[in-house]
Amino acid sequence: MIAFIRLAAEDCAGSAPDMWVFEALSLLAGPKPPLAEEEIAAKESEVQRDRARLGVRRWCDLYGVEMNEAHVIFSMVTGRAPR
User: Fold this and answer.
1) Of 83, 77, 75, which Cα lies nearest the Cα of 31?
2) Alpha-carbon dihedral angle through residues 33, 6, 73, 50, given to the nearest 10 degrees
3) Whole-structure pTM value
4) What's the rounded Cα separation, in Å, for the pair 7 and 44?
5) Tally of helices (H runs) and strands (E runs) in the chain
6) Are the beta carbons of 21 and 5 closer than 8 angstroms?
7) What are the pLDDT digits (tens) for 19-57?
């Protein structure tokens, strides 16, 4: 998801509220050990292929959906109602 957020931020500014992006990143900082930068870089190339295949409009639509889902999960985990 980190690779996805990094690459989507380039093309999709405004597709998801910044708060949702922060929440998605905070979910990744859970009990698992942190990802190595090499792992993220390897995933970025895979995500770039997906972005090229989908096109910018569909890519940003997917980004908005993914950030909304992360927001709902964050809200459930923290006990806050989703907005």
Assistant:
1) 77
2) -100
3) 0.62
4) 7
5) 4, 0
6) yes
7) 766 666 666 666 566 667 788 788 888 888 888 998 988
